[in-house]
Amino acid sequence: MSHIVVIGAGQAGSSLVARLRKEGFEGEVTLIGAEPVLPYQRPPLSKAYLLGEMELERLYLRPESFYAENNITLRLGQRVTAIDPAVKTVTIGDEVIAYDQLALTTGSHPRRLPAAIGGDLEGVHVVRTLADVDAMAPAVTQGARALIVGGGYIGLEAAAVCAKRGVQVTLVEMADRILQRVAASETSDYFRALHRAHGVDIREGVGLERITGENGKVTGAVLGDGTELAVDFVVVGVGITPATELAEAAGLELENGIRTDAQGRTSAADIWAAGDCASFPYKGRRIRLESVPNAIDQAEVVAQNMLGAGKDYVATPWFWSDQYDVKLQIAGLNTGYDHVVTRKGEGATTSFWYYRGDQLLAVDAMNDPRAYMVGKRLIDAGKTADPAVVADPAADLKPLLKA
User: Fold this and answer.
1) What is the pTM of this model?
2) Contacts of residue 74, Cβ cutoff 8 Å, sequence gap at least 6
3) How many domains would you assign to the chain?
4) N or C: the chain end with fewer CB closer than 10 Å?
């Protein structure tokens, strides 16, 4: 009987094995995860879970009974040390497991600060796993002093949670502005104002020189401009890197992650990849998407293709971020935009529409689900939107869908 092994028990891995069973695969399925817990949602870790508004059980993607009922073997808290594509085996410690097909859903790793500048001191945290957040949670208390390194979405979400818990927050961003890598200046301006209104001290164009400590624990930080801060803990949000170590050691081709074709195949026979770790063709170029929707959709297509569907994965990128009482929803990819159109609503309701020439590329919508949904449907269909209509707050957006 055929055996499918999936390495990586996160959103993509859990989605992939569930889809295999939904498609009627009756062979053996093994899901291997390095973390000693059931597959869980990551986005709430830095938001509702850290705030204490979500219990552990609600993080789980599926109850343990789901895997038993669907005859899916879980190997949790176990790390694969090697893959041998020639003989089609994976190794866990001293155990060798044979596979007929293998899927890599290994996810990504958070970038950490070098030990040479204090990155290994107690009290320096990253936000990626349940263990990361559990380790940080006791420090997030009223009156504590936090330094957030990095003004991307992870850093800003961490800053929002800390501020809501009464922590004194300083956030440093080495680039000229927060969100510079992922958003227009309009979106940066919106979130800078939001955070400052909640007491966060945002410092842009300022790097971190080093973290200082006593007895192995964080006590302060020195910034690139010479400023010295007293801090109780540090949260590092400076991006992630795809987890490609196993693939690289096995000789698989890499290109901004594990390189796959449009159907999720890697360069090795009977090995597939999906989620944060995988790069794939998209509109004439190669991309890698770090998002829950991509992890689910790509993994489900890969599951179908492992069973012979021969189906290309067509990504429809979308993302979200929750900060304070603002829900940011993003549709599309803004790469290559040359101008932005602002649509102002009531209160905090605003959306920014990215264009390249006459073509709509992406939408950032803050507390504006209607603008987001219209923009997403247009982008997914390859359509555009009249900038004059978008810019008019009194104009109804729905007729754009019929154009």
Assistant:
1) 0.96
2) 9, 31, 33, 38, 64, 67
3) 3
4) N
